[in-house]
Amino acid sequence: MNNNQLTSLSDYLRPWKLLTLGIGIGLLIIGSYIMPAIDWDIPISFIMGIATYIFAPITARILIQKRWLLLPLAIFGVWFAVDGVYWAYWAWKNPKALEYMRDIQWQTSICLYGLCACLWYRNCSLRELLHL
Q: Is the residue at 4 inside a domain?
């Protein structure tokens, strides 16, 4: 990946990143059974997890590299993964769930997004990551 790119396909296909995505989605699915909520189900766990996987490293790189001209992309990525896909899914599936939970779900989602941005920021192999 050259310095002008925010991410590359090879970055998304790194085994350690895919493994952590799978673990994260798995934990979300388990959580939906352990702590049931009207707006927490298996499909939204996949939808929000994958949206975060796509946008969190881009957001982190824009902020850390101070690429301010791309700040609208970072803001869009955060909104899309934290609220946009959530709103679209629940507006279609169960508008009452959206009405009851939208105001409070974003707090947890933004924290998870930030953790994932930190985790997936680096474009390196697992070996390189562990030698920090």
A: no
CA distances from 75 to 50, 66, 82, 84 (A): 17, 14, 11, 12
Structural domain boundaries, residue 104 = 9-130
Query: 106, 82 in Cβ contact below 8 A?
Result: yes
Mind listing the pLDDT tens digit of every residue in the chain (132 residues)?
666 788 889 999 999 999 999 999 999 999 999 999 999 999 999 999 999 999 999 999 999 999 999 999 999 999 999 999 999 999 999 999 999 999 999 999 999 999 999 999 988 888 888 886
Provide the token pair at 38: 């009207």
- Listed residue (20, 33, 25, 14) closest to 117, CA to CA: 20
Residue 111 resides in a domain? yes
Q: In whole angstroms, how far apart are CA 59 and each of 2, 116, 123? A: 17, 10, 13
Predicted TM-score (pTM) of this structure: 0.92
- Side chain identity at 121, as an amino acid letter? Y
The tally of domains found in the chain comes to 1
